[in-house]
Design goal:
The complex is a heterodimer.
Chain A (H helix, E strand, L loop, with lengths): L4 E13 L5 E13 L3 E6 L5 H8 L7 E6 L2 E2 L6 H7 E4 L12 H12 L3 H14 L15 H13 L5 E5 L7 H18 L2 E5 L11 E6 L2 E6 L1 H5 L2 H6 L6 H11 L10 H14 L1
Parallel strand pairs in A: 3-8, 3-9, 6-7, 7-8
Antiparallel strand pairs in A: 1-2, 1-4, 4-5, 9-10
Chain B lengths: L2 E10 L7 E11 L4 E6 L5 H6 L9 E6 L2 E3 L13 E4 L12 H11 L4 H14 L4 H4 L9 H13 L5 E5 L7 H17 L3 E5 L3 H7 L2 E6 L2 E6 L1 H4 L3 H6 L6 H12 L13 H12 L6
Helix pairs in contact in B: 2-3, 2-5, 3-5
Classes of the chains: A alpha/beta, B alpha/beta.
The complex binds adenosine-5'-triphosphate (2 copies) and magnesium ion (2 copies).
């Protein structure tokens, strides 16, 4: 069964305007398809164009060449701008910059008020959204009293209240402690599985990508590699040559293989433990 | 430079409804030349702690000794000594302000009246340590860079000052894997060559394990645990309670030990990835024929 695509880039190029009016080319002929309901990870070196890609997805930027279609709408269609922004929510790095309300409730209400949603419907959506991120007990809490992971979850609730089709996490876990990172990733996976929200996770942590359906690797404004986590992470040397890395288990297996100790391909630590233990015990 | 905290507390917004006790009677000693990793949950007080080192924050009570300088609530750090302490902020993009990258990095050294030629060579060197190509980036506006590029420029600006104490607040957040490694290796090299005292705040247990010789674990404005990485990473349950974790290496060793008979156990001291790999290679390699 071929799934419906939610978002498509067709031959998209983009340049920024430099200080002296010169053009700074950033994306070069990018073709990309995001299937509805999928969990996609985007990796790439600093400056490879990941955030630019994200801003093009919700029409904060417009392509210089080519077309971007989101939920059937061309992002160049100004009349659909607000519709597109509602469909595509974004969460950024710094948890302290994401929250605008004085309480968690106010914060989630903010976008709805701007949309002119009526009070009864608003109440319902706020409760649903906070429930879906597991923060319903913090309705009246002051955001500055929350941990970094909780703040990011509240930011995601603000988006969920808008009933989005797609949530883009642009390094949303970069400033979080290990538990906060885990909370946000667990939440993203759950929203994807249980509520059918399409997730695009832009990250520098290869470990976050092992559970995705699809991995896209950007390099200097172009798509270098894409495919399943297995397909992408088995290309260890190719990734390392463009400044990227692979998950821990893949790295350890690769280091052993380099010295002639061959194990089957693994993505997860549990599989590595199993294979190495077996080898140790049969040796 | 030896650093001592003696019962240091810090209260934000004292006397306002937002009053917050962010540090509670912290006492600790950091010997000169050490490389200290600071880990702890978001909001545990890591940034508050280190901002006391360059006079950005003053203690509400208690005493800090930085080499021969004493700092208390009424005694601030003398301006001339601030150059000894290089602090890279948690959001270093806020530290950038000049029109070009080269001007930004050379601002500090110029401000302390170093000769122009020396400033240029330091600027070039510092940008290279953080993995940026001097010629390609020197005339660009720091505000038109990607997140990770801005972070590198801000770190270069602090390195160019050649401080005696280097304090880095999550310097690698947002950097790509090669950038992370290159910058930390660069910092580690400078740390050793110049005999610096270095404090690294990080959420990465792997970074803490690889570079620090001593760890401070912050929780709720206090130091909850301290010691060499090997000892700290043995406290798996406590670390998890504090929203932290252990390096993947440590999890791997304990998982393997659960599946292996006692006489095949791996040592718990394998908390660095290279050491783990060396150990596995030794155990798995077929002994050479004589
Ligand atoms: N406002 C801007 N004006 C000019 N150039 C820009 C601007 N923003 C970004 N760039 C340039 O565009 C390129 C891509 O930037 P982008 O922010 O998309 O990278 P990224 O992959 O998100 O990087 P990072 O991992 O550091 O966040 C970089 O070379 C950057 O210097
Ligand atoms: N300017 C401020 N005014 C009031 N409270 C503050 C201020 N800055 C920090 N705090 C509070 O002080 C506590 C410690 O904050 P701090 O920034 O030192 O934590 P941190 O350990 O660096 O966290 P993170 O890992 O998120 O960077 C937190 O509860 C925070 O909300
Ligand atoms: Mg980015
Ligand atoms: Mg901090």
């Amino acid at each position: 069964m071929k799934e419906e695509s939610l978002l498509a880039f067709r031959d998209v190029s983009f340049s920024y305007d430099g200080e002296e009016g010169q053009r700074i080319p950033v994306l070069k002929s990018v073709d990309l398809t995001i299937e509805k309901g999928s969990f996609v990870s985007v990796l790439g070196h600093n400056g490879s164009g990941k955030s630019t890609l994200a801003k093009l997805m919700n029409a904060l930027l417009l392509p210089e060449k080519g077309t971007i279609i989101v939920s059937g709408f061309d992002t160049k269609n100004e009349e659909m701008l607000w519709e597109i922004r509602r469909h595509v929510g974004m969460v950024f790095q710094n948890p302290d910059n994401q929250i605008v309300g004085a309480t968690v409730e106010d914060d989630v209400a903010f976008g709805l008020e701007n949309m002119g949603v009526d009070p009864g419907e608003m109440r319902k959506r706020i409760d649903e959204a906070l429930h879906s991120v597991g923060m319903e007990k913090y309705l009246m809490a002051q955001p500055h009293r929350l941990s970094g992971g909780q703040k990011q979850r509240v930011a995601i609730a603000g988006i969920m209240a808008m009933r989005p089709s797609l949530i883009i996490l642009d390094e949303a876990t970069a400033m979080l402690d290990p538990q906060g990172r885990q909370e946000v990733m667990d939440l993203a996976r759950r929203l994807n599985r249980e509520e059918g929200i399409t997730i695009i996770n832009i990250t520098h942590f290869p470990e976050e990508a092992v559970f995705s359906d699809h991995v896209t690797v950007m390099n200097a404004g172009e798509v270098l590699l894409e495919g399943s986590p297995h397909d992408v992470f088995s290309q260890v040397e190719r990734l390392q040559s463009v400044g990227l890395d692979v998950p821990f288990a893949v790295r350890v297996r690769h280091a052993l293989a380099a010295k002639g100790i061959e194990l089957p391909f693994v993505l997860h630590q549990e599989e590595l433990v199993e294979h190495v233990c077996r080898l140790l015990l049969t040796k | 430079m030896q650093i001592t905290f003696d019962k240091v507390s810090h209260i934000y917004g004292k006397g306002t409804p937002f009053e917050r006790l962010a540090l509670q009677e912290i006492s600790l000693t950091i010997p000169s030349g050490s490389f200290v990793g600071i880990i702890g949950q978001t909001g545990s007080g890591k940034s508050t702690l280190i901002q006391h080192l360059n006079g950005l924050l003053s203690p509400s009570s208690g005493r800090i000794q930085l080499g021969d300088v004493e700092i208390t609530s009424s005694k601030r750090m003398p301006h001339v000594r601030r150059r000894d302490i290089g602090l890279v902020f948690q959001y270093p993009e806020h530290q950038l302000f000049e029109e070009t990258v080269a001007k930004d990095v050379s601002f500090g050294p110029l401000n302390f009246d170093l000769p122009v030629e020396m400033v240029e060579s330091r600027t070039r060197e510092s940008l290279e340590v953080v993995g940026l190509d001097y010629e390609a980036i020197k005339d660009r506006s720091p505000f038109q860079l990607s997140g990770g590029q801005m972070r590198r420029v801000a770190i270069a600006g602090v390195l160019a000052m050649q401080p005696k104490v280097l304090v880095l607040d999550e310097p690698t957040a947002g950097l790509d894997p090669a950038g992370r490694k290159a910058i930390l290796e660069g910092i580690y090299r400078i740390h050793r060559e110049q005999g610096l005292t270095t404090l690294l705040v990080t959420h990465s247990m792997e970074e803490a394990a690889s570079y620090a010789d001593y760890l401070l674990v912050m929780a709720d404005g206090k130091v909850a645990l301290q010691g060499p990485p090997r000892e700290v990473f043995e406290q798996v349950d406590l670390l998890k309670q504090l929203s932290l974790d252990v390096p993947e290496t440590v999890t791997l060793v304990s998982r393997m030990n659960q599946s292996l008979p006692d006489n095949e156990h791996l040592p718990h001291s394998l908390y660095r990835e290279e050491e783990l790999i060396d150990h596995l290679l030794k155990r798995l390699s077929v002994p050479k024929e004589r």
